[in-house]
Every structure is written in C-alpha cells, then in structure tokens.
Amino acid sequence: MGYRFEFRTYCRPFRQPLQTRHGVWSERRGIIVRLVDEAGRVGWGEIAPLAWFGSERLEEALAWCQGVPQVISEEMLWAVPERLPACRFGLEMAWEGVGG
C-alpha cells in the first residue's frame, strides 16, 4: 500500500516568551505532515523537534522531509533513521490517523 506524503512548515509565536536554561524561547517551529492512503483516508502528524531536549534540529527534520518521495510505502514509514525521533513520531501519528 502506498501513501501520498505532504508537509508544510509552521512558526507560531508564543503569547509570552518563555525563559529556559537555553535562553528565551519566543516561538514554536515545526512541520505538519499529511499522509493520504489509496482509499483517500487522511492522517495528520506533527514534527516539532527540540534539539536542546535531545531531538534532531528542525533543519535536519526539514531536510529529511524534503528528501521523502511524494508517494511512500509502509516500509518507508518504518525506515526513518533513529537519529530523527521527532520525524518518526510525526509519521507514526499520521499513519495512526489514516487507520494504520
């Protein structure tokens, strides 16, 4: 079974910036992913890495998404490298939404 893969970036400012150990955090940036199966069912996921929390950087996640073909197999969903945990999570969320 194949899935159509689409993604879009976002950047949302916080109402009030947060002071963290890593400095001021004033916006949340990430990637919304969409999977559509052959029956037209749609699943949504979010890739929102926090590099300072042990995840990949947003730039790494975006580069990975840009390298994904428009149509992917279920095997490709599970082949996301372990070094990209936010990408793995976002795709799993979308796959669950499709009914996987």
Would you kindly provide a written description of the structure presented here, covering whatever features stand out?
The protein is 28% helix and 43% strand. It is an alpha+beta fold and 100 residues long. The protein has a four-stranded antiparallel beta sheet. Strand 1 (2-20) and strand 2 (23-37) form a beta hairpin. The longest helix has 14 residues, at 85-98.
Brief characterization of the structure:
The protein is α+β, with helices and mostly antiparallel strands. It has 3 helices and 4 strands.
Low-confidence stretches: none
Estimate percent helicity. Answer: 25-40%
Strand order of the largest sheet: 3-2-1-4
Structural class: alpha+beta
Report the mean per-residue pLDDT as an integer.
93
> Sheet with the most strands?
4 strands, antiparallel
Rounded to an integer, what's the Rg over CA atoms? 14 Å
Query: What is the N-to-C succession of helices and strands?
Result: EEEHEHH
Termini, distance in Å? Answer: 11 Å
Topology:
Layout: E1 2-20, E2 23-37, E3 42-47, H1 58-67, E4 71-73, H2 74-77, H3 85-98
List keywords for this structure.
100 residues, alpha+beta, four-stranded antiparallel β-sheet, 43% strand
